[in-house]
Amino acid sequence: MFDKILIANRGEIALRVIRACREMGIASVAVHSTADSDAMHVRMADESICIGPPAASASYLSIPGIMAACEISGAQAIHPGYGFLSENANFVQIVEDHGLTFIGPTAEHIRIMGDKITAKDTMRKLGVPCVPGSEGGVATLDEAQRIGDEIGYPVIIKATAGGGGKGMKVAQSAADLERAFQTARAEGKSNFGNDEVYIEKYLATPRHIEIQVFGDGRGGAVHLGERDCSLQRRHQKVFEEAPGPSISAEERARIGKVCADAIAKINYIGAGTIEFLYEHGEFYFIEMNTRLQVEHPVTEAIFGVDLVREQIRVAEGLPMSFGQDDLTINGHAIEVRINAERLPNFSPCPGRITQYHAPGGLGVRMDSALYDGYSIPPYYDSLIGKLIVHGRDRPEALARLHRALGELIVDGVDTTVPLFHALLQEPDIQSGNYNIHWLEHWLETNLADG
Ligand code: MV4
Asked: How many Å lie between the centroid of ligand 1 and the Cα of residue 400?
């Protein structure tokens, strides 16, 4: 059993992990940069250690700094949160080589899913439905043309190491293929040092539906339904909900079982997310994330589970505290990501918080590391809070979101809150009628400079 866990992260997710540790009677160690000496995670943890200067590359991403902090504090395990080192297989290897426990999947699973060609090949062999396209990588333009003719246009060329929309190019026709192929390769090479690419049929108007899975590392696994995360801007999620407004109980049970069976077969351990594009009633695997995700609270709300507690349990070698039959959906949950950004351009807006008041009441959860007088540093991402609401059904969750946004006060910086007030007035949002392109289109027509 762990008696001390180090959290290799900052902000709201560091608080999320500290809270789970405290409920389990486990001491927590915060690490921080010199820019975060006054941060809430430092104040809330049982101990804290400064590991470097403001730049993440020299602090939150510094493997020697984090390993030294474990040594000094005597922490036996590391929770990586999301981002930073959470999907770094080399880090996991180093942690294990030092006799410590990484609270997350194995280095091997992270490596497999980090390479998208290998991930897709693995998932296809495990019976997960994938987007039609090349089997493995495509090395030459000739080969790309042959597959393009076979599956039909439009197609999308993706870098195997890609992420955040980088190294992804659509070809509308055969005439367009050479440009897409060469550009995707070049972006893969320059952004990730890997020019390997693959081809898929381009789906024009899908939803982004992701299945939450959880494994015990010994062939036991469950699914916790889906989240619809289609509302994104420049590959950043903005609004997430569970269950997905377009997914039936039958579809959920079917794809959920496929996903749980797949990760059971590979002895996956901990939390994972299997991402799909969903169009015309079909699921098409695109990627798997081997971490706890930002939007995990909507799943926690409808299933009534604590995913971080479960991550810690299975990392300790304990069984999960629930099986598939214990997991039933209760109501509907929505999360909105509140960023310190100025509309209409979403330009980062760091600065001093002169007043902060979190909303409360039935079915409202505010995960935030803000406090009155806190100064948001300019060095990290602009997420300052996640507002999660839970209702008996979707209309109640929407009404509660409207009510909670009205209670929230964040003064001193601009935030994305006005965007959510506007979105809640939209009939398509009220009815759940949106796909991955809806928000970008709405921003173009409604915010002039989206
Ligand atoms: C696609 C696609 C259409 N067809 N693949 C975007 C980032 C990466 N995670 C996968 N992405 C896409 N892959 C095929 N075969 C459209 C996207 C896409 C997207 C996906 C999810 C959420 C938002 C998106 C916005 C633009 C494009």
From this structure: 30
Q: Which residue owns the Cα nearest ligand 1 atom 23?
A: 436
Q: Is 16 a catalytic residue?
A: no
Looking at residue 450, what is its pLDDT?
46
Pocket probe mutation, ligand 1, options 160, 202, 232, 235, max atoms within 8 Å of Cβ: 235
> Which of 10, 16, 227, 291 is an active site residue?
291
- The predicted structure's pLDDT at residue 163: 83
Long-range contacts of 431-437 (CB under 8 A, 24+ apart): 431/245, 432/228, 432/241, 432/245, 432/246, 432/394, 434/207, 434/230, 434/231, 435/205, 435/206, 435/207, 435/230, 436/205, 436/206, 436/207, 436/208, 436/230, 436/232, 436/277, 437/205
Predicted structure pTM score: 0.97
Hunting for tokens 């039609």 — which residue is that? 132
287 CA: nearest ligand 1 atom? 9
CB atoms within 10 A of CB 88: 19
How do residues 25-48 score in pLDDT, each as one tens digit?
Answer: 999 999 999 999 999 999 999 999
Q: What six digits make up the tokens of 390?
A: 């839970």
User: What is the predicted pLDDT for the residue at 449?
Assistant: 58
Measure the CA–CA gap between 431 and 419, rounded to whole angstroms.
Answer: 18
Tens digit of pLDDT for each residue in 194-223? 999 999 999 999 999 999 999 999 999 999
Paired with 337 in beta bridges are 386
Substitution candidate for ligand 1 out of 240, 277, 440 with most atoms within 8 A of CB: 277
Is the CB of 287 within 6 Å of ligand 1?
yes
**Burial class (CB within 10 angstroms; exposed 0-12, middle 13-18, buried 19+) of 431:** exposed
Cite the beta strand spans of 75-181 per DSSP E. 77-79, 101-102, 155-163, 166-171
Is the minimum distance from the CB of 367 to ligand 1 under 6 angstroms? no
The reply to whether ligand 1 has any atom less than 6 angstroms from the CB of 232 is: yes
Return the residue whose CA atom lies nearest to atom 14 of ligand 1: 202
Distance of alpha carbon 215 from alpha carbon 299, whole angstroms: 16
**In this predicted structure, what is the pLDDT of residue 110?**
98
